[in-house]
Every structure is written in structure tokens, then in C-alpha cells.
Amino acid sequence: MHARRFKDHFYLSCPFSPHSRTNCHHGFTVRETCTWFSADLKQDTQRKTIHMSAIKSVLLKSFALSALVTGLATAPLMAYAQTTQPVLVMPAQSTLSLSANGEVSATPDMATINFAVVTQGNTASDAMKANNVRMNAVMASLKSAGIATKDIQTSSLNLNPQYDYTDGQAPKLTGYQAQNQITVRVNDLNQTGPVIDAVIKAGINQVNAINFGLKNDEAMTDQARQAAVATLLKRANLYAAATGMKVKRIISIEEGGPVYNQPQPMMFARAKAADMSTPVSSGELQLNVNVSATFELE
Questions:
Q1: What pLDDT score does 56 carry?
Q2: Which of 93, 165, 193, 206 is deepest in the core (most CB within 10 A)?
Q3: Domain-located, residue 265
Q4: Is the pLDDT of residue 51 over 90?
């Protein structure tokens, strides 16, 4: 067997080959070549073995490091899961809901009156013209009585056809009706009667309503609120004590009002005394405030 060296690599050839010879062209004998080649092959195998061992060592270290990192990452989670405290469920609150009214009395210092002029006409135009003439006279009389323009407000204005409904016959148009309503605020109650007389004389033929009130009711409303809250607290403590508990705090509070409660005002007409104005009694107002609250008991 021969060994041939080409570019630092040796190749063995069969000794029975026609080209086999004892010495290669580089001067090596067959024995020397085989010995050298065997040594070289052994060193190469050792290098490969060392290289594979290094690769295995690196892989083992990588796997070990990965396992360590994974363990460190999951350890806090496991510790957290083991140390989590149970959720405490608080018992429901004991509550009490009540409402109370606070009422105070006050003497009114103003009045609002609703008047109307109602006129008829064969046509819509005739009805409105007649109404306008009388309402303009009413407005002039109010200004003469000292009523400011800002205290006069038109409430409604209506124009409606009028029909004759005879049994067994179709409705028959008989004319038109115009109605103009105004609301007047009287800030001096002593002028209430004279104002009514003045507008009736000027053309008002319908008085619909009169109401009394306060120009500024904030102070009276606060008194009613305080009275309502005092009643609420008194009742809440009463109910709590009756059940062996105490009022801890107010959870919520709501208000309704204020509402005026007043008797129906009376107007007294005196036909025999034409020189006297219509007497009007203002009476007394009851201002009412309703307060609702929810209390927590302990």
C-alpha cells in the first residue's frame, strides 16, 4: 500500500496497483507513510473528540443556566401564591332612611294676579281688534297704578271660533272669541285692591287667580331646612336607640321644596260702596321644605 501526499494530504494506494512502489515520489517509504498517516489520523481524531467534548460542556452549561433562570423567575410567583392573604368580606351596613318636613310661617309681602280680557266678534279680525283696544287701556291703567313694565307678563293669547251646537243639526259658526291673559306682580300689598279695581275699569272682564308670596324667601327657606334636619336627627336617634344601636353618620341627604301652603285668598266686592277698592286678605304663608336622609347605624 502506498501513500500519496498532495497539498499536505496523504492518500493510500493499493500495493497491487501497477503504480505502487516502495518509495513515493516525495521520498517516503510505504512504512514511513503509513506510520505518519496513522499518527496524523490519531491526532485529528483526538482533536475532534476534544472539540465535541467542549460543545457538550457548553450545551450542558447553557441548559443548567436556563433552568436556573426559570427557577428564579417562578420562585417569586410561587412564594406570592403561598403568602397571599384571604380576602376579608365586610358585613353589610345597617342603614336607616327617613324623611321629615320643616315648616315656618311668614307674612307675604307681594301678590301675583292673573287677569284676562275676553272679547267677541263676528270675524276673527273683529274679535282681536276689540280685545286689543281693551288690553291697551288695561296696560295704561297698570302703569298709572305704579306697576313697572317688568312686573307685567302676557300669560296666554287665544283666538277661537264659536259654534252653535243645536241638536240634530251640523255645528254653525256664530263668531270668534279672543282672549288675552296677563300676570301682574304687585309688590305693595296695600295696592292690591286698587290695582284690581283699575284694570277692571279699564277693560278686564276676567280675574283668574291671585297668589301671595315673598320677594326674598331664602332666610325663611333656611329656617325650614334647619327644622326639617332637626326632626330627622331626632327621629333617627329615636329609632336607633329603640333597636339598641347608635347613629354613626349621614350617608346621603336630599331636599324637596320649598312649597308654599296658603289658604285660598278672599276678595270681597262691595257694590254699595263704589268709592272703596276691592278688599283682599293676604293671610299668612306656610313655607314647607321636605328633607330625606339615609343614616348609617352601628
A1: 58
A2: 193
A3: yes
A4: no
Domain that holds residue 136: 111-213
Say if residue 35's pLDDT is above 80. no
| pTM for the structure as a whole | 0.58
Query: DSSP letter string over 195-254?
Result: HHHHHHHHT--EEEEEEEE-S--HHHHHHHHHHHHHHHHHHHHHHHHHTT--EEEEEEEE
Length of the chain: 298
pLDDT in tens, 229-256: 999 999 999 999 999 999 999 999 999 9
Percent share of the chain, pLDDT over 70: 65
Domain annotation covers residue 87 = no
Residues 6+ apart with CB under 8 A from 76: none
Residue 37's pLDDT is what?
Answer: 44
Nearest 5 degrees, angle CA 6-CA 9-CA 14?
Answer: 80
Asked, for residue 129, whether it belongs to a domain, the answer is yes
Q: Tell me the residue type at 123.
A: T
Alpha carbon dihedral 76, 78, 83, 87, in 10-degree steps, equals: 110
Same domain, 105 and 247: yes
What are residue 260's DSSP bridge partners?
287
- Count of domains in the chain? 3
208 and 230 in a single domain? The answer is no
Identify which has the larger pLDDT, 66 or 115: 115
- Of 171, 198, 213, which residue is a domain's last? 213
CATH of the domain at 253: 3.30.110.170
Contacts of 192 (CB under 8 A, 6+ apart): 111, 113, 186, 210, 280, 282
* Domain match, 209 and 272 both: no
CATH number at residue 192: 3.30.70.2970
